[in-house]
Specification:
about 15% strand, single chain, 4-stranded parallel β-sheet
Length: about 220
């Protein structure tokens, strides 16, 4: 069949060129950054055009609709990110009660884009997200979905803005954070948003927390 008659399925397998895979689900691996750097200037990706600081880290943590194109065509975004110190990857949007298949899909999407950025020599800090025990335990699958493919003893990021709406949300955040600390043993966790004591107080000696609050920043660049 002539090439032009093939229908684009939107999967873009070429994005995964050279990738390593982890776990029974074969989730793309995010490599440890070449050096661990605490961003002093995280900038929302949508504001990069106003940022002249090449030492800034770009953060993709805005509504999915703003970044739908990155899933189809990430190459231009990689070129933009190469002008800065690094990128904190796409935060997987998950709603409370998200089914297991959806949790797997957004994790795969996050790791795929992180690999794509790394393949283009961009320093990457992976962004975490989980919604229930199926994400951060191995009770259903042999792998902890939220943690598959992430580097050990490294640096990770977590946004809390949508994780503190109820006591149950806070408990899920706390239990997931405990799993992150046990499994990944990160040196540094970047927290975008509030850090309530009821969630974080028991973990203050387990890693270094760096808090960016409020997030997104209220001041213009």
């Amino acid at each position: 069949m002539p090439k032009q008659q093939y229908r684009d399925d939107g999967c873009n397998p070429e994005i995964l060129a050279g990738a390593k895979f982890a776990g029974t689900l074969e989730i793309p691996v995010v490599e440890r950054p070449s050096k661990i750097v605490i961003p002093d200037t995280p900038v929302p990706f949508s504001q990069h055009a106003q940022c002249q600081n090449q030492n800034a880290f770009l953060v993709i943590s805005e509504p999915d609709v703003n970044f739908s194109d990155i899933l189809r065509n990430p190459e231009p975004y990689c070129q933009i990110a190469n002008n800065y110190a690094g990128i904190i990857t796409l935060e997987p949007a998950l709603f409370t009660g998200a089914k297991l298949a959806e949790q797997i899909a957004v994790t795969q999407r996050n790791r795929t884009l992180a690999h794509c950025f790394q393949r283009h020599c961009v320093e990457v800090i992976p962004h975490l997200r989980w919604k229930d025990k199926n994400s951060y335990t191995a009770t259903v699958l042999p792998d902890k979905i939220a943690l598959i493919g992430l580097p050990l003893n490294s640096i990770v990021a977590l946004e809390t803005n949508s994780c503190l709406n109820s006591d149950m949300d806070k408990l899920r955040l706390q239990l997931g954070l405990q799993a992150v600390l046990e499994e990944l043993q990160p040196q540094i966790i970047l927290i975008f948003g509030a850090m309530p004591d009821e969630v974080f107080s028991n973990f203050q000696h387990d890693t270094v927390f760096v808090n960016y609050n409020p997030w997104p920043p209220t001041t213009s660049l």
